[in-house]
Design a protein that fits this description.
Elements (H helix, E strand, L loop, with lengths): L1 H13 L4 H4 L4 H26 L3 E8 L5 E7 L5 E4 L1 H4 L2 E7 L5 E10 L4 E6 L20 E6 L7 E15 L5 E8 L11 E3 L5 E8 L7 E5 H14 L5 E2 L2 E7 L2 H6 L6 E8 L4 H4 L7 E5 L2 E2 L3 H7 L9 E7 L2 E7 L2 E2 L7
Antiparallel strand pairs: 1-2, 1-4, 2-3, 3-6, 4-5, 5-6, 7-8, 7-10, 8-9, 9-12, 10-11, 11-12, 13-20, 14-15, 15-16, 16-17, 16-18, 18-19
Length: 345
C-alpha cells in the first residue's frame, strides 16, 4: 500500500499542469503564455548576440614598467578600426587584440580622448565583421540592453537587462564630466570596459565603461551618439579639438506652452546643472537652471547637440546662445575656449 501511495504521488508530480490540478481557472493558459514570452525574449537576445559577438574583441595592453591590463572593444569598420575605452589603452606602449575567431594581432593607437573615455585602435587585417552604431537619442527606459565583453578574462561573456535610466552624468578619469550616460542593470565586471551595449536589433547603443562596485545592477555606458561623433574625429585627426564653455548639463523637456510661444524647433533643450567658476559661461552670466535651446540659431535638443557645436572652428569666436530663463527667452554671447589637450600619443 505504501508503494501505491508513492506511485500515486510520483504520478501527480510528473503529470502536466492542468486547470483542474491547480485549482486556478486558466492557470495552464497563463503558464503557456509565460513560456511563449520567455522563448521570445530568448530568441531576441540570441539573435542580437549572433549579430554583435563576432565583432567583439579582447584587448590586452602593456604600459611602461607595468604589467598592463585587459578590456574589451568592438570593430566598427571592416578595415580594422576598433572602438574601446580610453582607460583600457591610455598610456600603453603595446596593445594586442584577440578577435572572436581566436587570432591575435598587434594594434596601433589611432586616437585617444580621455575626456569622453573613448579611444580608437586599429589592427592591420581586412574584411572583419563589424557592428552598426545606433542612434541613442531615441532610446527609452525599459528597453532590452545586452552587454558583451571579457569580464575577468572570461572571453565573449553575455549579460542582459534593461536600460534603467538615461541622461546620467559621470566623471571621466581626466576629471571632465561626461554627459548623456546610459544606466543599465546588465551586469558588468572588470574587463567589460570598452565592450558594446546592444539593443534587441543587434545594434550598439553604448560603450560599457563603469559600474558602482558596492552596488548591484548599477552600470553605465557611453551613449552611441557620443561614441559615433568622437570616433569620427579620432579616425580623422587622432584627437578632438574641443571647445569649452564650462557648463554641466542634461537633456530636459521644455514646457509645451513655452516651446509653442517661442516657436522652438524642438521640445527639449539642455538644462544647465552647474557652471565652472571663471569659465566662458560664468563670464557670460549663464545661470544654473537656464535651458539652452539654440547655438548660433541652430536648435539644441540634447547635450549631444551642444557637444557637436563646441568643436573645431567655434573655438575663440563669439557664439550666440539662445536660452530660456524661467519663461523668458534670452540671447547671450559666449566665446568658447579650447580645452587643454590631455592625450598622450
Amino acid at each position: 500500500m505504501a508503494d501505491d501511495r508513492h506511485s500515486t504521488a510520483l504520478d501527480f508530480l510528473l503529470a502536466p499542469e492542468t486547470p483542474e490540478r491547480s485549482g486556478l481557472p486558466g492557470s495552464s493558459t497563463r503558464a503557456q503564455s509565460d513560456i511563449a514570452l520567455l522563448d521570445e525574449y530568448s530568441r531576441t537576445v540570441v539573435s542580437a548576440v549572433d549579430r554583435v559577438a563576432p565583432s567583439v574583441v579582447k584587448i590586452e595592453s602593456r604600459a611602461e614598467r607595468m604589467r598592463g591590463g585587459s578590456g574589451s572593444g568592438f570593430i566598427i569598420a571592416p578595415d580594422g578600426f576598433i572602438l574601446t575605452n580610453s582607460h583600457v589603452v591610455h598610456g600603453t606602449r603595446e596593445i594586442v587584440v584577440n578577435v572572436s575567431d581566436g587570432r591575435e594581432f598587434p594594434a596601433q593607437l589611432v586616437g585617444d580622448d580621455p575626456d569622453t573615455d573613448l579611444a580608437v585602435i586599429r589592427i592591420a587585417t581586412p574584411q572583419l565583421s563589424h557592428v552598426r552604431l545606433a542612434d541613442s537619442e531615441s532610446l527609452r527606459v525599459g528597453q532590452i540592453a545586452i552587454a558583451i565583453g571579457n569580464p575577468l578574462g572570461f572571453q565573449a561573456s553575455v549579460t542582459a537587462g534593461v536600460i534603467s535610466a538615461l541622461g546620467r552624468s559621470m566623471h571621466a578619469q581626466s576629471g571632465r564630466l561626461i554627459d548623456n550616460i546610459i544606466q543599465t542593470d546588465a551586469a558588468l565586471n572588470p574587463g567589460n570596459s570598452g565592450g558594446p551595449l546592444a539593443n534587441s536589433a543587434g545594434e550598439v547603443i553604448g560603450v560599457n565603461t563603469a559600474m558602482i562596485r558596492p552596488a548591484q545592477g548599477i552600470c553605465f555606458a557611453i551613449a552611441s551618439s557620443t561614441a559615433k561623433f568622437v570616433a569620427a574625429w579620432l579616425i580623422k585627426e587622432g584627437r578632438i579639438r574641443r571647445g569649452y564653455i564650462g557648463v554641466a548639463g542634461q537633456t530636459a523637456p521644455l514646457h509645451r506652452r513655452v516651446a509653442r510661444f517661442y516657436h522652438l524647433a524642438s521640445d527639449t533643450g539642455v538644462l544647465v546643472v552647474s557652471i565652472d567658476k571663471g569659465s566662458p559661461a560664468d563670464h557670460a552670466r549663464i545661470r544654473p537652471n537656464d535651458v539652452i535651446v539654440a547655438f548660433n540659431d541652430e536648435a539644441i535638443a540634447s547635450v549631444h547637440d551642444l557637444h557637436k557645436k563646441l568643436v573645431g572652428d567655434q573655438i575663440g569666436k563669439p557664439c550666440k546662445l539662445t536660452l530660456l530663463r524661467h519663461t523668458e527667452q534670452l540671447t547671450i554671447y559666449v566665446t568658447p575656449a579650447e580645452m587643454p589637450a590631455l592625450v598622450s600619443r
